[in-house]
Amino acid sequence: MSGTRDGGLRAAEANKKRHGEDFYQKIGSIGGKNGHTGGFASNPDLARKAGAKGGKFSSRGIPRCIMLNGKKYQFDTVQEASKFVAKNFGVKSYKYIDGEKTITTTNGQTITIMRDSERSL
Length: 121
What we know:
Blueprint: H1 5-19, H2 23-34, H3 44-56, E1 64-68, E2 71-75, H4 78-89, E3 91-97, E4 100-105, E5 110-115
Antiparallel strand pairs: 1-2, 1-5, 3-4, 4-5
C-alpha cells in the first residue's frame, strides 16, 4: 500500500511506535534549528549569479533580430534567423564577429543577426 493514504497512516503509526509519540515534533524541531534564513532572499547577488548561470545554459536560446529596410524581424535562435535569410535572400557567405553572425546574400546585401536587447532582458 505504499503511496496511498492508508500506507502513509500505517507508516506514521509504525514510526510513532518505534521512536515515540513525539517523533514528528522531534524531527521538525531538528529541521527548524538547522535553518538559518539564508537563501536568495538574503543574498541578491548570489541570486543574480545563479540566474545568470541558468540563463546561460537555457535551451531556449538567445533572442535574435534582423533589421531590414527599417523593419525588425525577431527570432528565438540564430538558426531560425539564418534559415529566414537563406530562404528569402540566398546566402553567398557568412562569418561570426563578436558573437554576431554576418551574412552576405547572393545579391551582395550584408545582413547581421544580432542579440535582440528588447527581448533578452
